[in-house]
Amino acid sequence: MKGRLFLVTGASAGIGAETAKGLAARGADVWIVGRNPERTERVRALVEQAGAKEARAFRADFSSLADVRRLAAEVRATGRPLHGLVNNAGLWHQERHESAEGFEDTFAVNHLAPFLLTHLLLPSLRDGARDRSSEGSRDGSTGEARIVHVSSRLHEQAGNVGTLAGRLVHLAGVLNLPRPPLGQPGFDFDDLAMRREYHGLAAYARSKLAQLLFSNELSRRLEGTGVTSNAVHPGSVATEVTRESPLLAFGQKLVTGILKTPEEGAATTLFVASDPSVRGKSGRYFADSAEKEPAKSATSVEDARRLWALSERMVELRPEERGV
Ligand SMILES: NC(=O)c1ccc[n+]([C@@H]2O[C@H](COP(=O)([O-])OP(=O)(O)OC[C@H]3O[C@@H](n4cnc5c(N)ncnc54)[C@H](OP(=O)(O)O)[C@@H]3O)[C@@H](O)[C@H]2O)c1
Question: Looking at the DSSP assignment, which residues form a beta bridge with residue 98?
Answer without folding.
Answer: 104
